[in-house]
UniProtKB/TrEMBL annotation:
Record text on subunit structure and interactions: Homododecamer.
A molecular function GO annotation: 3-dehydroquinate dehydratase activity
Presence of the UniProt keyword Lyase in the record: yes
NCBIfam families assigned to the protein according to its UniProt record, in alphabetical order: aroQ, PRK05395.1-2, PRK05395.1-3, PRK05395.1-4
Catalytic activity: 3-dehydroquinate = 3-dehydroshikimate + H2O
Provenance organism: Rhodocytophaga aerolata
Protein name in UniProt: 3-dehydroquinate dehydratase
Residues noted as binding substrate in the record, renumbered to the chain: N71, H77, D84, I98, S99, R108
Family: Belongs to the type-II 3-dehydroquinase family.
Amino acid sequence: MKLLIINGPNLNLLGVREKSIYGSESFENYLEKLKTRYPDVDLAYFQSNIEGELINKLHQEGFSVDGIILNAGGYTHTSIALADAISAITSPVMEVHISNIYARESFRHHSYLSSRCKGVICGLGMEGYRLAIEYFLNQPK
């Protein structure tokens, strides 16, 4: 199984930014733990702070991978273009958020992406990525 994790803007700063919200672990460190835990899963990772690069990656990989785990960061609440890109591809997408977006500022309560995704995992910290992997692994082949 091949899964792609895509992280959007500011998620390159995990481990150093707003530790009370996002924790103190870098995503790269957490990704290594995931790869160790799931040695039979081909886990690819992409991060960008640029909306167009996220769209290009969805277009590039969204017809060949078994699933995409997407944390679009702030673009979740602003990007119709990302929502359209999710609709355009055939690979299923799971939306993940480290924080509980519904317990934060009201502008974070709306996602343009959720209706285009298989589901949403939020508020469970980095564990949400693992749960998304489990979802994809447990789908009928």
